[in-house]
Amino acid sequence: MRPQILFPLFAPVTSLKGVGPRVAPLLERVAGPIVRDVLWLRPHSVIRRTPATLDRSIDGQVMTFDVTVDAYERPRARGQPWKVRVSDDTGFLTLVFFGAYGDQLEKRHPVGARRIVSGRVEDDRYGRQMVHPDYIQPPDKAGEIPEVEAVYPATEGLPARRVRAFVEEALFRAPDLPEWQDPAWLAREGYPSWREALERLHHPAGEADLSPMSRGLRRLAYDELLAHQLAMAQRKAARRREPGAKIPPSALADRLQAGLPFAFTGAQARALADIRADFAAGERMSRLIQGDVGSGKTVVAMCAMADVAEFGSQSALMAPTEILARQHYETISGPLAALGVGVVLLTGRDKGAARAAKLRALASGEARVAVGTHALFQAEVAFERLRFVVIDEQHRFGVAERQRLQAKGQAVHLAAMSATPIPRTLELTMYGDLDVSRIDEKPPGRTPVATRAVPMPRLPEIVGRLRDAVRSGAQAFWICPLVSESEVSDLAAAEKRAAELRRELGPGVGLVHGKLSGGEKDAVMADFADGRLSVLVATTVVEVGVNVPNATIMVIEQAERFGLAQLHQLRGRVGRGHRESACVLLYDPPLSRIAEQRLDILRRTDDGFVIAEKDLELRGGGDALGLRQSGLPDYAFADPFAHRDLIAVAGDDARLIVSQDPELASPRGQALQVLQELFDWKAGLALRDAG
Ligand code: ADP
Ligand code: MG
């Protein structure tokens, strides 16, 4: 239950003075639905109001003058402004007001009165003026004019100054909360209290107070990171208390491994050892296997499935698309079947008697392994004894979907496989509730993909080379540009490119895009995989991880607009076989310096982890990496790059808290509960629930 002390912060924005039915939707757009969101608005800059005499005024600057009202000048025609002449000992200034409220103005600021005025000064041919001053105050209220003022995001109908007034009120309402951070640590770092940190943010002494590196913002970021890490640590601890089947390593898996035409890489061996340690522990496993496409994750999972099979239980491997499921089936069914382990493939395509037979095999336990798509967690699918679930591209499934599959067994172990390498610095924020194995070594014998950046004007040359390559039997992917936010124009661009390539290269050019149905997409992909098409033009929806060993060329248009991780994954589709492969990154010149450096990283390395780390460094956090879709939380204060040092500290802190005070019952624990409520990060909230 939410503690009472937080009620004012969780009240709707309409509880703020001046926020009625017209303003509320605007404020919600800028901040969010509740007072807390207004309190958390980040100023994007500051205005410095320089006090000066009129002879020192500077065109275009925001300045504050101490003046006397001299005269009022009525508008001469409709639509003309009121003008008020003011002066000090050194000169004159005209205040300009549009809208006919001169009488009121005059009443408030009569001729002869002394006023402090502040606003933007403009010099034009009519002289020095200030249109709609931000402040006009009598001398005794000059203190209400801040010398430095925070500027907030605004929206049409809600100017930044009104937003600031609402923030001001939210700040006024913000209670003093019990301190949840370790006081000794706060003192050592020189961090302010929570409320003081917000004060500094909204009443900055200068630009520096808005920097992510300021003490105030670091404190707020740490609060947020700790709330998140704590929730994940609690979830991890809770899961550890759930029993999991104790599954010993099997002779079957050893025979399986011995029968493979290759030896495991060190990283694969370590990943399998990690899984086996989890299997042996008697706790439910939730492990993420991270590794580039082709690093050998599936083969590792297959060996773990052999352990499960010999134990007399079943495993299920779920992939997000039919074509991926089929490929996994092709990878693992042969070796497993050779050792007498029955494998079935279950997808949405299966109908009638064939489907019934597969369902029977799973229900009876005759099949020890199921590979499939979403079809696996449908209600009619029952397992005799499901103990191990493997999810490929786990971020493409919802929490509920994963849970429905797991619910088909008892004490089910979970391994998730991801081909999106996450920089180590971000691992904790994204997967703090999972155990992670990294497969950071490639199987030997792969030829690196020769990667080149080529400016768009040289397109004809690239097409010419592609024609030669296709004539000698090569296959190529051609990834179309991200034209815009709109799928429609992306599609139009892809269709146009496909038509042009068909003119140049002949009919063997296929097109896949997001508007095709699953079946249509699969058909085109299959034509490409089986060599009936030599070029596959695609929008970015091409299935991650699809294996077409004969494809040796990857062309990516407008490469500068893709995230590096994405480019790396796209490139990973070629260079699977032993043949020389090439990747052409087409870009629209001129490239910015950062864009140039980014493309250069791709030319220099093909290690996904290194690429992700470098990209993060170059672009400095934000959502540059497109990580948000893959689960990077949308923090209010924490910046995964600027505050990366704090992530690790918060992770350690959270683990310590959970081990010493699992119920958060101590005084600090209770304050931490307030913190979690404040940020909505509670243990039970399955942010990225994998188990
Ligand atoms: P991932 O699931 O990580 O994309 P896979 O497990 O599907 O990778 O392996 C990709 C390809 O590499 C498969 O054809 C597999 O047989 C092969 N492979 C896996 N591990 C090795 C290894 N250690 N040495 C050589 N080839 C391997
Ligand atoms: Mg794979």
Give the gist of this structure.
With 691 residues, this protein is of the alpha/beta class. Adenosine-5'-diphosphate binds next to helix 11.
Give an overview in words.
The protein is of the alpha/beta class and 691 residues long. It folds into four domains: 86 residues, no CATH class; 96 residues, OB fold (Dihydrolipoamide Acetyltransferase, E2P); 189 residues, P-loop containing nucleotide triphosphate hydrolases (Rossmann fold, 3-Layer(aba) Sandwich), CATH 3.40.50; 157 residues, Rossmann fold, CATH 3.40.50. The protein has 23 helices and 23 strands. Helix 8 crosses helix 22 and helix 8 packs across helix 23. The longest helix is centred in the first third of the chain and has 26 residues. The radius of gyration is 32 Å and the shape is globular.
State the helical fraction. 25-40%
Mean pLDDT: 89
- At the fourth level of CATH, the homologous superfamily of the largest domain is P-loop containing nucleotide triphosphate hydrolases
Q: What is the overall shape? A: globular
For this structure, what is the CATH class of the largest domain?
Answer: Alpha Beta
CATH level-3 fold name of the largest domain? Rossmann fold
> What's the alpha carbon Rg, rounded to whole Å?
32 Å
Corresponding CATH architecture of the largest domain = 3-Layer(aba) Sandwich
Could you list some keywords that capture this structure?
Rossmann fold; alpha/beta; 23 strands; 4 domains; 18% strand; binds adenosine-5'-diphosphate; 691 residues; 39% helix; 8-stranded mixed beta sheet; OB fold (Dihydrolipoamide Acetyltransferase, E2P); disordered C terminus; globular; binds magnesium ion
